[in-house]
Design brief:
By secondary structure, the chain is an alpha/beta fold. The protein is 32% helix and 30% strand. Strands 9, 10, 11, 12, 13, 14, 15, 16 and 17 form a 9-stranded mixed β-sheet that branches. An 8-stranded mixed β-sheet has the order 2-3-1-4-8-7-5-6. A hairpin with a 6-residue loop joins β16 and β17.
C-alpha cells in the first residue's frame, strides 16, 4: 500500500491522483490517501497537490511494536542516522506521541552504538523544507504514522514535493503581472493532470496570462501547445517565461508552441475548427476585491463575467474536437461570510457541453484559502 499525503485542497489533490494513476483510491482518511498499486517515487514530480508519498510497512501496531519497527528500519542504515516523524491522527491517539516516540527511538539506537539525529516537526508534522534540508531521504528516514483508536499504521516516506522548484517557477520567472493575478504553478499542474490529455494532444490556453499553464505543460512533456490572450503584454510575458524556463531546464523536451494575441470570444477566426483536444485555462476573474464593495457591485461583476464565460465557452465548442475536454476556473466572491457564485451549469448544455464530475458527487472542486476574497471553482466540461 502506498500513502499520498495531500496538500491543502484535499479533494482536488485526490482528483488529481485518480486522474494521473487511473486508479480509484483504496481509502482516504483526512490528509492520507492510499492506493494498493506500486508507485514510483518519481511520480511526485508529476503531482501538484501531493506533499509526500510513503510506502506502508506495518499496520495495526501497539506503541511498543511501532517503536520496535522504527528501530529495526533505522539500525540498518550505515553512518549517522537522520530521522523524523510525522503524525496524521485520524481518530483517537495522542498529539504528543511524535516527540516522545522519536526520542525513545533515538535512545534505543544509541544503545546499539548508533550516531543519531532526530528532526522534530512543528505540530507533529515535518514540512517539505525540513525533509529536504535535513536530508532525510539521503541520510535516514521520515516515518509517516496514522493514529486510529490508539493503534498505529506506519509508512516510510519515499518522495517529497520540491517546494523550492515551485517557488522559483512562481516568483523567479521574469514575466509577471501581480495586478492581474497569478495562477500558482501547483494549481496549473493539477489542472493539466485533470484534463487527462495525451502528451501529443493539442492543448490550448486561451487566457494564457504570463503562460503558467503553457510552461508547466512544457515541463510535463506536452508537445503541442497554443497560448492566446487579449493582452499583448501577456503574450510577451509568456514568451519571456518560456525562454527563462528553457534556460533553467536544459533537459526539457522540445515542444511545438504557438502564441498569438486574440480575443477568447473570437478564437474560431484564428484556430481551425475541431482541431483542439483540450482547453485548460483560468479566464479573467474580474476586478480585484478590496473588501469594501457592496453586494450589488459584486453581483454586477459576477453577471458580467458569466456573459464573458458563456461567450468564450461557445467559441471553445467550435474549435474543440468531438469529446474534447475543458478544464475551466469559475470564480466565486466573498461577501461578508458567504459566497456569491456564478451559475453557468444550466447554460452550457445549450452550447453542446456537459459537466463531468472530477470526483463522484463533486461537480466542481474549490481552490481557496480561508482569507481569500476570490475563490476558484475548478470545472471539467466535455464536448458532446
Amino acid at each position: 500500500m502506498y500513502w499520498f499525503i495531500l496538500g491543502r485542497e484535499k479533494l482536488l489533490s485526490t482528483a488529481e491522483i485518480a486522474a494521473v494513476t487511473r486508479y480509484h483510491p483504496k481509502s482516504t482518511s483526512g490528509s492520507v490517501l492510499k492506493l494498493d498499486q506500486k508507485i514510483d517515487s518519481e511520480l511526485i514530480k508529476q503531482l501538484g497537490g501531493t506533499i509526500k508519498i510513503g510506502k506502508e510497512i506495518a499496520i495495526n501496531l501497539t506503541v511498543d511494536k511501532l517503536k520496535a519497527k522504527m528501530v529495526d528500519e533505522l539500525k540498518q542504515i550505515e553512518g549517522k542516522i537522520h530521522f523524523g516523524v510525522s503524525i496524521y491522527s485520524i481518530r483517537g491517539g495522542a498529539q504528543s506521541i511524535d516527540e516522545r516516540l522519536g526520542l525513545e527511538v533515538k535512545k534505543e539506537l544509541k544503545k546499539l552504538g548508533k550516531s543519531v539525529r532526530f528532526v522534530e516537526g512543528q505540530h507533529g508534522v515535518l514540512n517539505s523544507a525540513q525533509i529536504k534540508y535535513n536530508k532525510l531521504i539521503d541520510k535516514g528516514a521520515e516515518f509517516l504514522i496514522e493514529v486510529i483508536d490508539k493503534k498505529f499504521n506506519l509508512a516510510k516516506m519515499i518522495a517529497v514535493q520540491d517546494v523550492d522548484e515551485f517557488s522559483e517557477r512562481d516568483f523567479g520567472r521574469p514575466g509577471r503581472d501581480d495586478l492581474s493575478g497569478m495562477l500558482p504553478p501547483k494549481l496549473a499542474m493539477m489542472m493539466i493532470n485533470l484534463a487527462q490529455a495525451k502528451l501529443d494532444d493539442v492543448i490550448l490556453d486561451p487566457f494564457c496570462g504570463s503562460g503558467t499553464i503553457i510552461t508547466e505543460a512544457m515541463l510535463m512533456g506536452y508537445k503541442n501547445l497554443t497560448g492566446s490572450d487579449l493582452s499583448e503584454k501577456a503574450i510577451e510575458d509568456t514568451k519571456k517565461n518560456i525562454v527563462w524556463l528553457k534556460n533553467n531546464n536544459r533537459t526539457i523536451e522540445q515542444s511545438n508552441i504557438e502564441l498569438f494575441t486574440a480575443d477568447a470570444v473570437q478564437l474560431s477566426s484564428k484556430i481551425t475548427k475541431n482541431s483542439v483536444n483540450a482547453i485548460i485555462t483560468e479566464p479573467y476573474l474580474g476586478r480585484p476585491l478590496y473588501g469594501n464593495e457592496s453586494e450589488a457591485q459584486i453581483r454586477s461583476q459576477a453577471e458580467e463575467l458569466k456573459n464573458l464565460y458563456l461567450a468564450a465557452l461557445a467559441e471553445f465548442t467550435k474549435i474543440l474536437k468531438p469529446h474534447g475536454t475543458i478544464i475551466f476556473i469559475v470564480p466565486r466572491f466573498k461577501n461578508k461570510n458567504s459566497w456569491i457564485t456564478i451559475d453557468i451549469k444550466n447554460e452550457i448544455k445549450k452550447l453542446g457541453l456537459i459537466s463531468e464530475p472530477l470526483l463522484p458527487g463533486q461537480e466542481f472542486l474549490l481552490y481557496a484559502r480561508p482569507d481569500q476574497k476570490v475563490g476558484r471553482e475548478i470545472w471539467k466540461f466535455k464536448k458532446i
